[in-house]
Amino acid sequence: MAKTEKTPAPSSRLLLKKVTCPHCWSEFEPSDICWIAKSEELIGDFLLGETEYERFLPARFNPDGNAVDRKGVTCHELACPNCHLKLPPCVLETRPFFISIVGAPASGKSYFLAAMTYQMERLYGEKFHLSFTDADPQMNRRLSDYVTLQFRNGDPNALVKIDKTEEQGDLYNTIRKDGQQITYPQPFIFSLMPLSGHQYENQRQTVATSLCLYDNAGESYLPAEGADRSSLPVTRHLGRSNTIFFLYDPLQDNRLRELCRGVSEDPQLQERMTADFRRSPFRQEQVLNEMVKRTRQFRNMTTTAKYPLPVVVIVTKFDAWFKLVPEIPRVHPWTKDPATGERILEEKIFKEISRVTREFLLKRTAEIVHSVESFASDVTYIPVSATGTSPVVDPQTQESGFRAGSIRPAWVELPILYALAKSNRGIVPIQ
Ligand SMILES: Nc1nc2c(ncn2[C@@H]2O[C@H](COP(=O)(O)OP(=O)(O)OP(=O)(O)O)[C@@H](O)[C@H]2O)c(=O)[nH]1
Ligand SMILES: [Mg+2]
Ligand SMILES: [Zn+2]
Known about the structure:
Bound molecules: guanosine-5'-triphosphate, magnesium ion, zinc ion
Number of strands: 22
Distance between the termini: 51 Å
CATH class of the largest domain: Alpha Beta
CATH superfamily of the largest domain: P-loop containing nucleotide triphosphate hydrolases
Largest sheet: 7 strands, mixed
Number of domains: 2
């Protein structure tokens, strides 16, 4: 695609001054946005290969503001000028909010992500007067498949399971640039928009947010040579993220496993695990330290500088260890605005949940608390259970999974509500 003179992008009054691509994290001006050709004759793109339609900087628009390709066909889809991957229109119009979800293999990242998006769809409209929709259903397909499998399964007895996230495959997009192949992780993008009853429903443009999430394979965070490199920049979102979720799994820590065995029958706690349960080959502290190292590098932080944004330590699989910490207040950390019915988060309850969870970790796995607190100044600890129950093993097939009808997530929506509230964008109120 030859870069010609700049053309005004359509509806420019709606656009952000700078757009950040959720695939390659490059920043560009909206007027540089590429369009995706639609004419059958324009198949083949120099970065994406022969099966993708050409990306181009348009010279002509139709009266509705849509670009017209070289063959005269009106186009509707947009792409990043740097990586050419498809962008949903909301990333041009609403501010992005990037979340990096970090954790060792099998710490529960994919289950958490699926449960969190399901709960957000359910709760946000009713309780927070926010719509929460797929920015592009095709891009979010893998995640919506997880949600359907677990939460919209017609058979409550079905044994369901989310596969291990791979380090390559259909959750990644590969481009070829300057003779080099580059593989980016697929972002999941959701559009958050105030609804009637929201305190800022009349300021939709400033409050609305494009939420961008990534589900990496735990191996991509391991301190291994080449897990993240220029041709495989799979964790570079750490350089952009507005908040980091570090998932810590007590069931993978030897000291905590011992304690959990006293209160839970979870098969992941068995000494010699049956079925196909997995454990990380690295200690979780090493994953945390690697995340800190990369974040410092990608953000150009000095070794003494503190990460200025919130970090939430999400302590997973709460269903298996909640009995060890009965002091954690089991209440909704929000109150209801009597005038609008909108929920307002109560910071003091979050702080209490965090304080008690931190104390619990500090006694048993102090190095995690010390490492994360020497990296970031704003750290909150929140326990979650993506499933509300332990996995089961089918006695006949020896396959592991969860009975669809028994999955009951607990508190999975809290970390993101808190992170959004702390962003001071007015999207989620807090007092
Ligand atoms: N008891 C309990 N087990 C869980 C929960 N969430 C996940 N698990 C178990 O933990 C295993 C790993 O969860 P995943 O979400 O696949 O872990 P991951 O962090 O995405 O792992 P990778 O994709 O390898 O990086 C699952 O197979 C489940 O058996 C939970 O809330 N409670
Ligand atoms: Mg996974
Ligand atoms: Zn890009």
